[in-house]
UniProtKB/TrEMBL annotation, chain A:
UniProt source species: Arenibacter arenosicollis
The protein's Enzyme Commission number: 2.3.1.41
Primary localisation category: cytoplasm
Subunit structure: Homodimer.
Protein name: 3-oxoacyl-[acyl-carrier-protein] synthase 1
Entries under InterPro entries matching the protein: Beta-ketoacyl_synthase, Ketoacyl_synth_C, Ketoacyl_synth_N, PKS_Beta-ketoAc_synthase_dom, Thiolase-like
From TrEMBL, chain B:
Keywords: Cytoplasm, Fatty acid biosynthesis, Fatty acid metabolism, Lipid biosynthesis, Lipid metabolism, Phosphopantetheine, Phosphoprotein
Domain of life: Bacteria
Pathway membership, UniProt: Lipid metabolism; fatty acid biosynthesis
Species this chain originates from: Arenibacter arenosicollis
Protein name from the UniProt record: Acyl carrier protein
Sequence intervals crossing the membrane: none
Modification sites for O-(pantetheine 4'-phosphoryl)serine: S42
Carrier domain boundaries: 5-82
Gene: acpP
Modifications after synthesis and translation: 4'-phosphopantetheine is transferred from CoA to a specific serine of apo-ACP by AcpS. This modification is essential for activity because fatty acids are bound in thioester linkage to the sulfhydryl of the prosthetic group.
Localisation per UniProt entry: Cytoplasm
Length: 425, 86
C-alpha cells in the first residue's frame, strides 16, 4: 500500500493576487491581473500586455535579508521565494534550526529559465571586459536550480533539493515528482512549485512567434480568452505557486489542516510524433496522460467532477476539450465542470502549473468552482462537446470531489494530476 | 581626504551587510579576521571588494584580495590605493 499524500500548505505570487487571500478574492470575483506595460510598447512588441505580480520593496524585505536583496535582479527568485516560504508557513512549519537541517523535508521547485535580467546585466559587464564586477551573486541568481537553492537555505531542508523543467508543464510535473518521493518513503514533506521570471526578455520569444494577442493593448483585461470563440492567443504571464505535500501520517500527527489528498498523477510525452511537434501536443499522448493519471489515482472516469484545464486561449483549446471528452468518455451535461485560471492571470509559463494547482485547491477550501473570465462567447466546437452549464462564467457553489488538473508544454510534454477532497474519518 | 576614523566607519557600514545574523556590528574591530572571526562567507569577500571600490573610488586587484584577511588589512590597502590616486 502506497503512502497517502496530502496537501497541507499553499503559497502564491500571481498577477492577480500576491498571497493566498488576495489570490482567492480575485479568483472568486473573476478579477484580471493582465495590464498594459509601457516597457513592451517602447520595445516595439506586438503584444504589449502581460501578467506580472506587483511586489513592493517593503514586502520583499520580509522574505529576504539585506544581503540577499543586495544585487537581487531575478524576478523568478523573488516570486518563488515568496510563494515557497508562504506555503511552508501556511502548513504551520518552521525553518530548521541553525545547526541541523530537516532531513525529512525536500524541495522540487521548477522554472523555465531563471534570473534573465541578472543574466542580461552579467552579459553586459562581461562584454565590457568587466567580468570582475559581477560579484558573487550572478551564478546563484541565474542557475536554474537557484530557486530551490534559495528556498533550501531559507527553510533548511535536508532531503532532495532540486529543480525540474518541462516548459509549461513544469509546475504540475513537480507536484507529481514530490508525490512520488513521499510515496516511495524517501521524504515526509516536499515543498513543490515553480516560478517564472517576468519581463521582455522572457516574453519576447513568444511575441516573435506571433502567438500572443496584439489587438488588446488598449483592453488588457479582456485579452486572455480561454475557450472563447474570439480567443486570439495566450497572454504572457509570470509568478510562482507552491504546495506543501506531506505524508498523511505526518500531517495527522501534527494536526495540520489538509486542503486535499493528492491521489495520483502521470507525465508523458507525445514524442513529437503524429500531430505532436515541438509546439503542438499529440492528442493521443494527452489522452493517455489523463487516463494514466486516473489509473494511478485508482479512480473511474465518471468520478471526476471538476477539471482545471491547460486552456491557454489559443485555437488549441477546442482540441484540448475534445481530448478530455474522449479520454473521459463524457460530454454534454455529463462533462465535469471545467475552468481555466488563465483568463485572469494569463499564461504564467513555467509557473502556470503550480499557480493553477493552487487555484484548483482553493476551490476545496471554499466549496466553489471558480468562474471563467472572458468566455461569454464559448467556441462553437467546444459547445458541441460540453453543455454550457459545465463552463461556469461566474464562480458557482459546488463542493469538488475529484479535481483533475493538466498542463502541457513545448516539447510535446504532458502532466496530469488528480486531487481528491479529504474527509476526516 | 577622509581620516582614519571615517574610513573605519565606512568600512564597518559595508561589512555590516555581510555579517551572519548572530554577529553584531560591535564585534567588528581592526584586528578582526573577516572569515575566521566574523564568520563572513568567503564567497562574499569579492562583494566587499566591489563595495570598497565603489565607496572609495579605487580599484583592487586579485593580489589585494589575497592580502585582505583582517579589517586592518583592508584599511591599509585602502590607504595605499588612495595615495596612488593622488
Amino acid at each position: 500500500m502506497n503512502t497517502r499524500v496530502v496537501v497541507t500548505g499553499l503559497g502564491v505570487c500571481a498577477p492577480n493576487g500576491v498571497g493566498l487571500y488576495n489570490f482567492y478574492d480575485s479568483l472568486q470575483s473573476g478579477a484580471s491581473g493582465i495590464t498594459f506595460h509601457q516597457e513592451l510598447a517602447d520595445l516595439g512588441f506586438g503584444c504589449q500586455i502581460a501578467g506580472k505580480p506587483e511586489i513592493s520593496e517593503s514586502l520583499k524585505e520580509s522574505y529576504f535579508t539585506p544581503l540577499q536583496l543586495k544585487g537581487l535582479n531575478s524576478s523568478g527568485v523573488v516570486y518563488g521565494v515568496m510563494a515557497g516560504t508562504d506555503a511552508w508557513m501556511d502548513a504551520g512549519l518552521g525553518k530548521a534550526n541553525k545547526d541541523k537541517p530537516d532531513w525529512d523535508s525536500g524541495i522540487i521547485f521548477g522554472t523555465g529559465i531563471l534570473g534573465i535580467d541578472k543574466l542580461r546585466e552579467s552579459i553586459y559587464l562581461i562584454d565590457d571586459n568587466n567580468t570582475r564586477r559581477l560579484g558573487s551573486n550572478s551564478v546563484m541568481q541565474t542557475m536554474a536550480s537557484g530557486i530551490s537553492a534559495y528556498l533550501g537555505g531559507i527553510l533548511g531542508c535536508g532531503n532532495q533539493v532540486t529543480t525540474n523543467s518541462s516548459a509549461c508543464a513544469t509546475g504540475t510535473e513537480g507536484v507529481i515528482m514530490g508525490l512520488e518521493r513521499i510515496r516511495s518513503g524517501k521524504a515526509k514533506k516536499m515543498l513543490v512549485g515553480s516560478c517564472n521570471d517576468s519581463g521582455p526578455y522572457i516574453w519576447g520569444g513568444f511575441d516573435a512567434m506571433r502567438i500572443l494577442p496584439s489587438n488588446y493593448n488598449d483592453d488588457p483585461e479582456e485579452a486572455s480568452r480561454p475557450m472563447s470563440a474570439t480567443a486570439a492567443g495566450f497572454v504572457p504571464g509570470s509568478g510562482a505557486g507552491a504546495l506543501v505535500l506531506e505524508s498523511l501520517g505526518s500531517a495527522l500527527d501534527r494536526g495540520a489542516k489538509i486542503y486535499a489528498e493528492v491521489l495520483g498523477g502521470a507525465v508523458n510525452s507525445g514524442g513529437q510524433r503524429g500531430a505532436g511537434s515541438m509546439t503542438a501536443p499529440n492528442s493521443e499522448a494527452v489522452q493517455r496522460c489523463i487516463l494514466d493519471a486516473l489509473s494511478d489515482a485508482g479512480i473511474e472516469r465518471s468520478e471526476v467532477d471538476v477539471i482545471n484545464g491547460h486552456l491557454t486561449a489559443t485555437s488549441k483549446d477546442a482540441e484540448e476539450i475534445k481530448n478530455w471528452s474522449e479520454a473521459l468518455k463524457r460530454s454534454g451535461k455529463d462533462f465535469p465542470f471545467i475552468n481555466s485560471t488563465k483568463g485572469m492571470v494569463g499564461h504564467c509559463l513555467a509557473a502556470a502549473g503550480s499557480v493553477e494547482c493552487v487555484a484548483s485547491l482553493l476551490q476545496y477550501r471554499a466549496g466553489v468552482v471558480f468562474g471563467n473570465r472572458n468566455c461569454q462567447d464559448i467556441h462553437p466546437d467546444i459547445l458541441k462537446l460540453v453543455d454550457v452549464s459545465q463552463i461556469p462564467r461566474k464562480t458557482i457553489a459546488h463542493r469538488p470531489k475529484i479535481i483533475a488538473k493538466a498542463s502541457f508544454g513545448f516539447g510535446d510534454v504532458n502532466a496530469c494530476i488528480i486531487f481528491k477532497e479529504y474527509k476526516k474519518r | 581626504m577622509v581620516d582614519n576614523d571615517e574610513r573605519l566607519a565606512r568600512l564597518k557600514e559595508i561589512v555590516k551587510t555581510y555579517l551572519p545574523e548572530d554577529v553584531p556590528i560591535e564585534a567588528v574591530e581592526e584586528e578582526s579576521n573577516f572569515v575566521t572571526e566574523l564568520n563572513i562567507n568567503s564567497a562574499h569577500l569579492v562583494d566587499i571588494i566591489l563595495d570598497l571600490e565603489d565607496t572609495f573610488g579605487i580599484r583592487l586587484e586579485n593580489e589585494d584580495m589575497d592580502k585582505m584577511q583582517t579589517v586592518r588589512d583592508a584599511l591599509n590597502i585602502i590607504d595605499l590605493k588612495l595615495l596612488d590616486k593622488k
